[in-house]
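Would you mind writing out a protein's amino acid sequence and the numbers that encode its backbone to help me picture the idea?
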Amino acid sequence: MSNRRSKKASETRSAILSAARQRFTDEGFEASLSSIVEDAGITKGALFHHFENKQALYYEVWRTLQQEMNRDTQAAAAEGRSPGDPYSAMLAGARRYLEWAARPDYQRIVLIDGRAALGRDWYEADFDLSQKSVRVGVQYLVQQGAIATENAASSAVILQGALNGAGVALSRQVPGVTFESIYNTIEHLLRKMS
């Protein structure tokens, strides 16, 4: 493939993903491929050249959002690290994740429609992506002596579950559940782990 063709293919793929992200944010998985194609300024043939079907397109948008969130939470954790508090980095990352959970695009694409749109693939991909990030934080806490080595794996699973549940609760606007109450509960839970 020539450089010009490669560049054009990359631009088309980016246009599709941008249009799909906006449509999936606004309409969820129910967004039509016709509307995505129209927004991207391409043909359906071009869309199917890049993505096998609507689920594959949705997965790519979902995966991209998850990767962006993961990079952002890791950066927040690194910035939030405080020598006097071994929990500070993990808590900064948790706070940033909760901020993502409050975003309309992340809420709709990842937290609300992701499970239904992606089925079993969602669980496997979500667990793998989330565990990688949470395990880094837990491993740091193990190195700091805040969590026992033998509790590291289960602590990572519990924290991931708590954060995922918190994100869903925030996206559904569960009565009595606020950003700060969730964050305070996560902090309490984390500081009690050993």
The domain at 1-51 is CATH 1.10.10 (Arc Repressor Mutant, subunit A).
